[in-house]
Write a structure and sequence with these properties.
With about 200 residues, the protein is α/β, with parallel strands linked by helices. The protein contains eight helices and nine strands.
């Protein structure tokens, strides 16, 4: 059975933050396990990403059930810094309560912080100061100064770490060995061509 990742869609979605992850999940080119990618929005109307792409959702949020998913991905967007996004953090809570992984990057971590979803999990973001500025956040003691962090079923990263975000998510999903994941980061973050043969032998 094909596994499915649900990608949250909203206007000004930060395309680049989840681009690496979507490619690796959909193609399975270095994992040998292609995933089904399903986009989800609050309404059926198209959204426009920060990069100007117009995307029509496959599903509306009311139809999304954690039991029919294997991953929820939350990218950054302008609404997070405007204090919005509660419908998505409510969805993230449902996923985490059901034991289904959630991967959040950039501004999405601020939304999770406001919802209290970072208080009891190891996590990271753009900077600890970014999260401490969020009303209700009480997770400073669980903050990790790293590019990406896996805290149980939750993966978090800052906006400058799309490759590490991908690596951490693939690791949490058990899709690749540590050797393959290190080679992936070496190639796509450090431009180390000597690591490419390891990727080509990954599966």
């Amino acid at each position: 059975m094909t596994t499915t990742a649900h990608i949250a869609l909203y206007d000004t979605l930060a395309d680049w933050e989840i681009g690496h992850l979507l490619v690796e999940l959909r193609t399975g080119r270095f994992t040998g396990t292609p995933w089904n990618i399903v986009t989800v929005a609050e309404l059926a109307e198209p959204i426009t990403t920060m990069g100007g792409l117009r995307v029509v959702p496959d599903l509306v949020l009311d139809q999304l059930a954690p039991g029919a998913s294997d991953l929820l991905v939350l990218a950054g967007a302008e609404h997070w810094d405007a204090g919005e996004g509660k419908v998505w953090t409510d969805a993230a809570r449902r996923f985490l309560d059901a034991g289904v992984p959630v991967a959040a990057i950039c501004g999405a971590t601020a939304g999770l912080a406001r919802a209290g979803l970072l208080d009891d999990r190891a996590h990271t973001s753009a900077a600890v100061e970014y999260l401490t500025a969020q009303p209700g956040y009480q997770g400073k003691d669980r903050y990790v100064d790293a590019r990406a962090v896996v805290g149980g079923d939750l993966v978090t990263a800052g906006p400058d770490s799309p490759v590490q975000f991908t690596r951490a998510t693939l690791s949490r999903l058990g899709l690749a060995s540590n050797e393959t994941l290190q080679a992936y980061e070496d190639v796509f973050h450090r431009a180390d061509a000597s690591a490419f043969p390891v990727l080509m032998q990954a599966h």
